[in-house]
TrEMBL record:
This is Metalloprotease. It is found in: Membrane. The keyword Transmembrane helix applies. Keywords: Membrane, Transmembrane, Transmembrane helix. It comes from the Bacteria. The lineage of its organism: Bacteria, Pseudomonadati, Bacteroidota, Flavobacteriia, Flavobacteriales.
Length: 283
């Protein structure tokens, strides 16, 4: 992936700040359960906020040159998301508001509760912020078998930015209303969750296409790298690794094949109007 000259000021790098630390009081079990809940599509903040945890302070440290380079990568990718989605929204007569991005280590505060590195990257609609602990990418490679490079970071950030787009368009409000109504069985709500996640993958593909058209930033292997990351976090792959078998009714993010399919549909069409995963999956 070729770097562009754009940088966003909406990135807050909290790594090395000393403001976060290990959680004390909730216990390792709470952290593990929250991580499992996150990867299977739930809201880990509900568990973390109900624990009697307190934060300990860690000493401040100076970021390494590699970490500073990662910050510049995230600032560049955030800027490209902002520019691409501002253009897409403008073309469709919709007002665009950029998301904020927080890079952190261990723990930090978020509008959705305590953010922990064990939770992986996530989007909080309350404060319209994407929270990313960069150690997630080591886990993605070591535990889920993904080939991790710079465009893996681009895909993950674009997926979380896709949730921000859903928030701006009112999609998340509608899905949350369905979930809170209690009118639908768990299996049906899981399908809604899958449709939500696959649409975020679709939006990531749209972003890649639109940004490539504008910046010519892709290099050979980048799209394959993104699809590999999408497949690695498919529900079937995660379930096989975690429990040795697949239960399709419990899917909340979509299978590896579905995640690849919808990312590629977004990339091939570059058209935000082609991403109605809800009608496609909830017939």
């Amino acid at each position: 992936m070729k770097w562009t000259n754009d940088r966003s000021d909406n990135v807050d790098d909290r790594r090395g700040s000393g403001g976060g630390g290990a959680l004390v009081g909730g216990g390792l079990g709470t952290i593990i359960i929250a991580a499992i809940v996150f990867f299977l599509g739930g809201d880990p903040s509900a568990i973390l906020n109900n624990s009697s945890s307190t934060q300990t302070q860690t000493e401040q440290r100076t970021l390494t040159q590699e970490e500073l380079s990662v910050r510049e990568l995230v600032r560049m990718l955030t800027a490209e998301n902002e520019e691409t989605w501002a253009k897409v929204f403008s073309q469709n007569g919709i007002q665009f508001t950029p998301a904020k991005v927080v890079m952190f280590e261990n723990t930090t505060r978020s509008g959705c509760g305590t953010a922990q590195s064990e939770m992986g990257p996530f989007y909080c609609p309350v404060d319209q912020t994407i929270y990313m602990d960069m150690s997630f990418f080591n886990e993605l490679q070591q535990q889920f078998g993904a080939k991790v490079g710079q465009f893996t970071v681009a895909y993950v950030l674009a997926h979380e930015y896709g949730h921000h787009i859903q928030n701006l368009l009112g999609t998340l409000d509608k899905t949350n209303a369905l979930r809170q109504s209690g009118r639908y069985p768990e299996a049906e709500m899981n399908k809604v969750s899958v449709a939500t996640e696959l649409q975020a993958d679709f939006y990531a593909g749209v972003w890649a296409k639109q940004t490539e058209t504008r910046e010519k930033f892709l290099e050979p292997g980048d799209i394959q790298e993104a699809m590999g990351a999408a497949a690695a976090v498919g529900d079937d792959n995660i379930q096989k690794r975690a429990q040795g078998y697949v239960n399709q009714e419990s899917f909340t993010h979509g299978s590896s094949a579905q995640r690849e399919e919808w990312f590629m549909k977004g990339y091939n069409t570059g058209d935000i109007r082609q991403g109605d995963t809800f009608n496609a999956l909830l017939k």
